[in-house]
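>> Question from a student workshop board

For tomorrow's exercise we were told to take the sequence and the ligand below, predict the bound structure, and bring the output to class. My setup keeps failing. Could a helper post the expected result so I can at least see what it should look like? The ligand is S-adenosylmethionine.
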Amino acid sequence: MVKCIIMGEINWLQFMDNQTILAYDDTAEQVAALHKMLVPARIYWLIDRFFIKGEPCADVGCGIGRDSAWLSEHGYRVIGIDASEGMLQQASQLYPNNFFVQDSLPLLEKQSDSSYMNVLCSAVIMHLVDDQIAIAITNLMRITALGGVIIISFRGTSSKDLRENGKLYSVIDSGRLIALFVQSGAELLHHEVDFQEGRGVEWTNIVFRKLPALVV
Ligand SMILES: C[S@@+](CC[C@H](N)C(=O)[O-])C[C@H]1O[C@@H](n2cnc3c(N)ncnc32)[C@H](O)[C@@H]1O
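>> Workshop helper replied:
Here is what the output should look like for this input. Compare the format with yours to find the bug.
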């Protein structure tokens, strides 16, 4: 919980969906068994096409660290970041040569400004409640260096209460998300939507570049 003082009033904002993080903590072993088997080929294709080779990289919401390890094998210096202690334990066991740290969206308060040229945030932001998404975007942009690239992917849900096994799957409007990134100083490089028939869910992958400072 973070205390915010707004115009003399005290508001308490729940900055993380704790139920989602607890669900990941409680099922970390099972999630690891499943995620180990998955190869996010499309995400790796986007990384190959858009990331700035060899430059520092943050894998925000790294889960079991599979993509951090892939990035590392492909020449990137990478830090895997996740809010769930259980998932981070799995990551450290599976990929002991990689570096993982506990931190959370929307604030990413342990990450310094402009510290990464490449930011991957794959299958994470739908776990934020709607009013945290703009704050998350501000902070994803904050940690990205000028000229750096952000790859963001998220999926929808067919569940009526937007929960699957306790995890929140917020509905994210791509148009709003793109507008928020552009207002924060990014340009849109790529946007695609992929319907995964087997699971009946839609994946959206979007790539942004943080614009270099204006020269006047
Ligand atoms: C579906 S997994 C995705 C893992 C990995 N990025 C991938 O694509 O396989 C979602 C991950 O996001 C993490 N997560 C959820 N909410 C988060 C938050 N607010 N901040 C940081 N990580 C979060 C979860 O703990 C979990 O490890």
